[in-house]
Amino acid sequence: MEKKWVSDFLGVGYRYTDIFMNILLLFTDKKIAVRIWNENIHWWPDDKIILRFIEDNDYYWFILYQQGKNLLSKENIGFFKKNPITQNYLRFKKNYEQKAILRFALYKNVEMKIADNDKDEEDGENNETEKEKEESKNINYELNIIKRMKTIYDVKFLKINEIEDNSVEYSLIKNIEAQHA
Fold first, then answer.
1. What DSSP string runs through the chain?
2. At CA 74, angle to CA 72 and CA 75, rounded to 5?
3. Which residues pair with 174 in a beta bridge?
4. Strands 77-84 and 59-66
């Protein structure tokens, strides 16, 4: 069974407040996140989960997959995403010790209008332009971390020139770069 690579999740987040650092795969749709977890990640044995951070200039490749095959998973999937190197990534890399916790999270923006603006609209005294209305909105972001978790013991931080030619990571990166060339 060939591995299906998933890259259409929102991104990667990091949480530092637990004993071991958390890696969050960010989604905008709870149904999709829960389905992927229940049908696949739930069945991954912790000691078979592979996580690689492959640095390439100002970017890094996030590559997460299960080593080998699992007969209980619906699909043989892995996750990858090319991300800019950020202070959060560097902090995770610096403070990583022995293992990390994998979790899924929902990341949504919630727009909230200023209370005075709502009152004016109710009174029919709103003479604001569309631009002013947009500026008066506060955009807040909400992060809901799903309780399920997996422990990842095999985490490596590599440079692009350090990966082996016959590795899963090398094949994936070269295939992606060839598609976008």
1. -PPEEE--S-EEEEE-SSSS-EEEEEES-HHHHHHHHHHTGGGS-GGGEEEEEEEETTEEEEEEEESS--TTSSS-EEEEEEEE--HHHHHHHHH-BSBEEEEEEEEEEEEEE-HHHHHHHHHT-----HHHHHHHEEEEEEEEE-S--EEE-EEEEEEGGGS-TTSHHHHHHHHHHHHT-
2. 115
3. none
4. antiparallel
**How far does the chain reach from its first CA to its final CA, in angstroms?**
27
pLDDT value at 78 more than 90: yes
Report the distance separating Cα 49 and Cα 69, nearest Å.
11
Task: Provide the whole-model pTM.
Answer: 0.80
Q: What is the pLDDT of residues 142-154, one digit of tens each?
A: 889 999 999 999 9
Distance CA 93, CA 99 (A): 12
Domain ranges of the chain: 4-179
